[in-house]
Amino acid sequence: MRTTSVTKAATAAAVALATLTLTACGGDAVAQGSDRQPTVAQHTQSSTEAPVTVAPTAEEVDAVTRVDASGPGEHAFVLRDGREVLVVDGEPLPEEVLDDVLAPLLAAEEEVGDRPDVNGVLEAAAREAVARINDGTGVQAVVAYHGTDPAGPYYVALDVAEPTRSRGEALTAARTFIDGQADPSAWVLLDATED
Prior knowledge:
The chain is an alpha/beta fold. It has helices at residues 8-24, 58-65, 95-112, 120-137, 167-179; strands at residues 2-5, 74-78, 84-88, 140-149, 152-157, 187-192. A 4-stranded mixed beta sheet has the order 1-6-4-5, with helices on both faces. Strands 2-3 form a two-stranded antiparallel ribbon. The protein is flat.
């Protein structure tokens, strides 16, 4: 069983780092593992000439945002920004995938706060996270998340146990459920219970 915990701060830091990285690359980011180099026109340059950069073709852009997932047990997970990340059966899910999947749930937790009339938003975001993992990675997921109501914080292991006031009980219920599956290694616990 794999357990993943992504805090709001870690998600925000990942988004900021990705933005800075893409900005620093001038939008010419190269997919991990790619041997493609940015396309630059080469000529003899005088000391007063600025370098000339040629914009990539549509095929080159497609090559940067797409991954080859043609091997056995390989999946191309599509991030919200359209880029693909290679996911391989039996290997931990890449942080990019986890951050991308949990970001809407963490944002919903922040937005909902202690308004019990909109806590269905949390469940919908949790279900979306599970569906994206299940559909895009070949891994099954259980998500644990938290909310707040007038009585205080509560924790949910979605579709596994009733909501509880104990974070530990919700996580234990999720882990016990995963451990009881025929192949626990094919499951991941998405832990969005941290404040």
